[in-house]
Design a protein that fits this description.
Helix 3 (about 40-50) runs antiparallel to helix 10, helix 5 crosses helix 6 (about 120-125) and helix 5 (about 90-100) crosses helix 9 (about 240-255). The protein is globular, with a radius of gyration of 21 Å. By secondary structure, the protein is an alpha/beta fold. The chain is built from 13 helices and 14 strands. The strands form four sheets. It has a seven-stranded mixed sheet with strand order 2-8-7-6-5-3-4, sandwiched between helices. A three-stranded antiparallel sheet has the order 10-14-13.
Length: about 375
Amino acid sequence: MVADRTRRVEISGIRRMFEAAPPNSINLGLGEPDFDPPREVVAALCHAVENGGNHYGPTAGIVPLRDRVAARYADRDPRTTRQNVIITASGSEGLMTAALALYDVGDEVLIPNPGFVLYSPHARLAGAIPVPYSLTEERKFQPDLDELERLVTRRTRAIVINSPSNPTGGVFPERTVDRIVAFAEAHRLTIISDEVYDQIVYEERFASFWGKTDRVVIVNSFSKTFAVTGWRLGFLLAPPALAVELNKIHYHIMACPPTPAQVAIVAGYDAGDAATRRMVREFKARRDLVMRLLPSIPGVSVVRPQGAFYAFPRVDLGFSATHIASGLLERGLITTPGDAFGTLGEGHLRVSFANSRENLRAGLGIFREYAEKVTGG
């Protein structure tokens, strides 16, 4: 009754945990900021809805928003204009658009393991073959360029990058970005760089792939920057000729992005980034709290996250990540088992610190009690 492609993908393990959670659970599986959008953004959305801004717009997005996105990237490449920008209905739609536009049946695509849950299914839905590359705790979740050289074949078409990373919180330094660019150019690969968390970085300076090569598609989103995950609005950046091709696929997925939300995001850009900076300061304080609490839990070790709002601790309690996450869930704590993000996520949990400090203390207290009971500590 259904197409083979439907059978080749499954519902995300993240969603399964949310749906199984008992009422009033503490949610440290959260993949979104727990902040409200800036006032200017909300006011602009309401104004647009109440004043006729509810109609179809251009497929690639409204010009004022494309111009502001281009201006944001002009310091990385002064050639950047609205012709490089496509506004999408979320970063997820941007990823799907890129997959359908770039992957042919039988192509191989290098994807991070562990990595965001959509990369592999999108490749398979396009008829391509996802080929995982390793991000390990021992390497602080940085890619091994020698491994990439071993994995690439004549059928390899693209490499997917995610920095800052969901789920690991890792951030690739500039030297790593430059080495990946050289690797991609040597093998004529397209880099699909998921930079959704580019504004949420701590000590490590964020290094974008934009402006470093013409063999790149940037996937980004307004969801995290403006705390509007439910609005489903993102964007793609690509060289102009490739942007035209991406826009064809984008049109056939959803015709045009939502107009009122685009108007509201323009107002967010005009208001400046003070709200985003306040949010990031709070995330950093929570990250530091989590880094004090997690290592004191029996069986837990963790690499300090440099970006996004996730920690990805290894949990050695003699059980699988799914078993541990289920045990915590029964006690009212939602986390995400690491194997939801790939085989190398086994033995890890994703712990989000996009929740209040009070809930972080309470939730990690539940984690500690569980670990002490299991270990007899």
